[in-house]
Structures are given as C-alpha cells and as structure tokens.
Specification:
Layout lengths: L9 H15 L5 H16 L6 H16 L3 E5 L1 H17 L3 E4 L6 H13 L5 E2 L6 E3 L9 E3 L8 E5 L3 H9 L3 E5 L6 H5 L2 E3 L3 H15 L4 H9 L3 H17 L3
Parallel strand pairs: 1-2, 1-6, 2-3, 6-7, 7-8
Antiparallel strand pairs: 4-5
Helix pairs in contact: 1-2, 1-4, 3-8, 3-9, 3-10, 4-5, 4-8
The structure holds ligand PTJ.
C-alpha cells in the first residue's frame, strides 16, 4: 500500500509497510510482525523520539565497536527489512562482519537476507554456510548455531531485536553485547553490556553517525568511554524517560 507522506503517522505506517513487504518477500518471519507491534507500544512511551539515555548508550556502543578486535553485527529478518542499507554502511565504517542469525530459522530466509545485504553493498555475509557453524552453550533456540569466524570468534556482538537467551549466553561466553531493544525491561536489555533503548530505524542511523565521528579517537579513549558506561543505570534512565513522557499526558 502506498502511504501518503502527509499522513500524520507516516513514519510508523511506512515502517509497518516495509515489514509487511519483507514478510511477503520471505525476509521477515510472521512473528516479526508481532514483535514490531510490541516495539511500537514502547516507542509510543518514548514519544517516538531518541531520548538522552539512548544517545549515551550509542556513544558507548560506538566505542565498543571501534575498540573491538573482531566485531560482528547479527542480522535477523526485521533488521534486514528495516535498515539493510545503514547496517551495511555501519559494517563498512567500523569495520565489522555481518552474520545472519535467525530465531525462526530457515535456509531459504537466511539466503534471501544475505542476498538483500549484498544488494545493499555488503562484501561478505556470514551465517549461511552450515559447514562453518559452531554452537554456543546455553541457547535453546536455533540461534545457538553461529559462524566460527563470525559470532563464534567475536569479542563484541551487536544484536538488534533479540531474545534474552542468546544475550545471556554471549555474555557468559565472555563477549561484550550491544542490544537495540525498545523494551527496557526485556531480558536482553538487562543482560547486555550496552543497551540502546530506541527504535532500530532511528538507532542504526545514529550509531552510524556517532561511529563515523568517533573514529579518530585513540584506543585508550575508546576503552575509557566504554568502561565508564553503566548499563543498569542507563536502562533505568530509559524507563524514567518513558515515565517522564507519559506524565506529560496525565
Ligand atoms: O528473523 P528472526 O527469525 O530472527 O526473528 C526476529 C524476531 C524479532 C521475530 C525475534 O527475534 C523475536 O521473536 O523477538 P522478540 O522476542 O519478540 O523480541 C523483540 C524485541 O525487540 C522486543 O523486546 C521488542 O520490544 C523489540 N522491538 C520490536 N520492534 C523493534 C524493537 N526494538 C527496536 N526497534 C524496533 N523496531
């Protein structure tokens, strides 16, 4: 459906439409449409804008990515449908590997997502060839299967729109985890090293912008920014941002 840019809820309706088209073309899982609905409810509570708490987390996330030895960006169906171009630009900018890793796994969907990323400029996309897969401990879903040269070997992993199991398992495996999740109370948000509580359609472009800006910083400066970040405190700040916005309505 063509959405008029004059519609007061254009951005939200256009995002929905991209997910529906992603579902129809076999990129997005049917459950991905439900996940977006949950995300939208939290985004309403943020006033659909990026709060200060998210900007602080984005700075820490850029520092972690730029300071990493082997950073990886994990891609699921919703991420591919909503921000394919910017996520590829981010991978080039850091530079980081891109790895397709699905909760509702199918080889056909993995291949379609990898080719979408390549059409958007990715040179290499991991996670599709099962010969190079290893298992991470403590994950009950198909997400346990990761590429040995990608998430298996990573020191920092960016996991947008994720389930809590894998965030916890990746932390236990000694990796730093960056989450993007509109729900500040999710297990993922609480388990991650850095959680960006924001809509992925705003969070990834902002992460790209800040990463470009922070590139000239020294390793020791990047390390200091990352280690001074307190995720527990910042997630609490994000909840306060939501309460503050809602109090404006009461
Ligand atoms: O493509 P697959 O098979 O890997 O599946 C992807 C989904 C998203 C379906 C899968 O990871 C899933 O079921 O996720 P959950 O457990 O529903 O969690 C998704 C989290 O992302 C929830 O906490 C949502 O609030 C949040 N979320 C949804 N849409 C957005 C979002 N966060 C940021 N931006 C969004 N647009």
């Amino acid at each position: 459906m063509k959405i008029s840019p004059n519609h007061p809820r254009f951005r939200s309706l256009e995002t929905r439409e991209r997910l529906v088209q992603g579902f129809q073309s076999g990129i997005v899982a049917s459950q991905g449409l439900i996940a977006q609905g949950r995300g939208e409810a939290f985004d309403y509570m943020l006033g659909e804008v990026t709060p200060k708490s998210s900007r602080l987390a984005t700075k820490a996330a850029s520092a972690l990515l730029l300071g990493a030895k082997s950073p990886v960006i994990s891609i699921n169906g919703n991420t591919a449908a909503l921000v394919a171009r910017d996520v590829v630009k981010l991978a080039h900018s850091v530079p980081a590997e891109l790895e397709v890793n699905l909760f509702h796994r199918s080889l056909a969907r993995e291949r379609r997502i990898a080719s979408l990323l390549k059409r958007n400029g990715a040179d290499r996309v991991l996670g599709v060839d099962s010969k190079t897969k290893v298992r991470i401990r403590g994950v009950a879903s198909p997400r346990r299967s990761v590429d040995a040269q990608g998430i298996g070997n990573a020191d920092v992993v960016l996991i947008p729109l994720e389930d809590g199991d894998r965030a916890e398992a990746l932390r236990k495996a000694g990796k730093a985890v960056i989450a993007i999740d509109l729900n500040p109370m999710s297990r993922t948000s609480l388990a991650a090293t850095v959680t960006i509580v924001d809509n992925i359609i705003r969070a990834i472009p902002e992460l790209l912008r800040i990463t470009e800006k922070m590139k000239p910083l020294s390793r020791s400066r990047l390390g200091a920014i990352a280690s001074s970040f307190d995720n527990e405190k910042n997630v609490a700040r994000a909840m306060k941002d939501m309460i503050h916005y809602m109090q404006g309505w009461a």
